[in-house]
Records
---
Amino acid sequence: MAGLLNATKKENGMKVKSLSAAFTTDKVAESRDFFVRYFGARVTFDCGWYVNLEFGSPVSSLQFMAATQPEHRLSSSAGLMYNFAVDDVDEEHHHLLSEGLTVVVPLDDHPWGDRGFAVQDPNGITLYIYSEREPGEEFRQYYR
């Protein structure tokens, strides 16, 4: 019996079809409107207390939800960062500044292989916007 159980075990763990992040907030509508306006998000589900937003191709998604169940607690934005890879970070930087957003991490080239900057969403989540660059010599060894 033990041999049969081992034979049916997945060799490399769970086979994930997709992954997304859901953030519990009291600012569901503000979050939806922010990401639609500034990041071109598509709303694919919105029942008022829960919204699903999709970005780019291949599709990435974020969800924002109100705390409607006892087990739901408001999320903290402390230490949370969403990374957005874009074709032209300089263009996005100019666009978001012209829209009035405040940059919380200045636009700069980074030796680990990107050029990026950061803003914050209505929940205080840091949004790092970047374009890939050739990494510096000290970081090349870490890429696989």
---
Amino acid sequence: MTNTGKKTQATPAKAAPAAGKTAKAPEAKKAKPAGSAFAKPLQPSKELAAVVGSDPLPRTEVVSKVWHYIKKHKLQNEANKREILADDKLAAVFGKSKVTMFEMNKFLAQHLK
């Protein structure tokens, strides 16, 4: 019968620290993004606002919205998925009709202030 008592005592002891860890985790996450340069909202240019909206957005959100636009309008080259075939709105941002996914961030940076 003493074994049953030990199991009962051990189980709450393990559960208590786990509950304490989960309670502290959200507080730590809230403090971290505030210092990140990627989390700073930036104002898109008029050309970029036609794709992502005119509200200030973090750089990461801008890239995400541009990719959503590319996929929604099927602007990736089927033969080479790394290549983006710009429509009129994206051509105004990129300055040319084709860019690679690696070049895209360079052009987006020019349209964020």
---
Amino acid sequence: MKNLRIGFVCYPTFGGSGVVATELGKALAEKGHELHFITYSAPARMGSLKKNLYYHEVRVSDYPLFDYQPYELVLASKMVEVAKTHDLDLLHVHYAIPHASAAITARDILAKEGIHLPIITTLHGTDITLLGKDPAFEPVIAHAINESNAVTAVSHSLKSDTLKLFGVERDIEVIHNFICPSHFEKDTDEQFRQSVAPNGEPIITHISNFRPVKCVEDVIDVFAGVRSEQPAKLLLVGDGPERTRAEKRAAEKGIRPDVVSIGKIKNPIEPLLVSDLFLLPSKTESFGLSALEAMAAGVPVIASNSGGLSEVVEHGVSGYLAPVGGVDAMTQYALSILGNPTEHATFKAAAKARAQEYDVMKILPHYEAIYNRLTI
């Protein structure tokens, strides 16, 4: 296909949608497409600017009339400006609101000037599973989905939730999240591992934004069960409202010295490379990118059988799945894997092999096919 000029709109944070959007944009730029990121700060995973990568800041003025600054309107204006200045072929926006709704406004403004700018909207989860349940947002989200020129979802579970919550009748194409294998081709930081587990204990890791939906207290309870049977260390990566509660629970269970909290970091791959097992007992995950990244690092995953996680983790092969809140089952699965070196090695190899199925180079053509369809 021909090289395109694409406007990318996403949250520039460390969260899954921001990571996926940024890595997708970088991969497209490497293939020769011209990528223009439009957001309020440079995406966290963007790195230094390279060939075909551009960043346009959305600046919200501190106008005294507004108690809350109208980011969506300023974003739409910026999209119009970038589309005209750089002759964009299309907009790819991540999240229905505010990004798709702002893009529709921008598209309508440009259409009055005779400029055609198709929109592809990728649904990542929170816009559907959380905001979508709030009646105040339902009409806007439904409108954003229905008015986009193409819509994708990162899992079949998320597609199903979208159709159920909004009664959307349009086609939604499932394109899974992905990993960049080259990011995992690095040596383990043995000094870091030694600092976490000085006596060679197995390291169980959890990475998240520590919101209630992540069930971090279940992580502590599972670890406590493992710790009662064998030495181990728990590595907590990330920060959020549930971090303090989790650390307090660890103290109450007498395992606080074996829990290492390192907070937010830019590159979660480094702690994954020293890990032996990954825990993700969330109430729901639209996809489970952190689980996929763990598997790409060769780390077996124990997770809840919720949302899109069953599309990522093969039960009994690359890890195990248990019902939400199934602390006892998850504990037994963890002890089974960690207690048998041969089984652990088998699960590690299977996890890595499974992750290769989500190589960005296998996912990229699916997006390019949609771009091609919208711009011919």
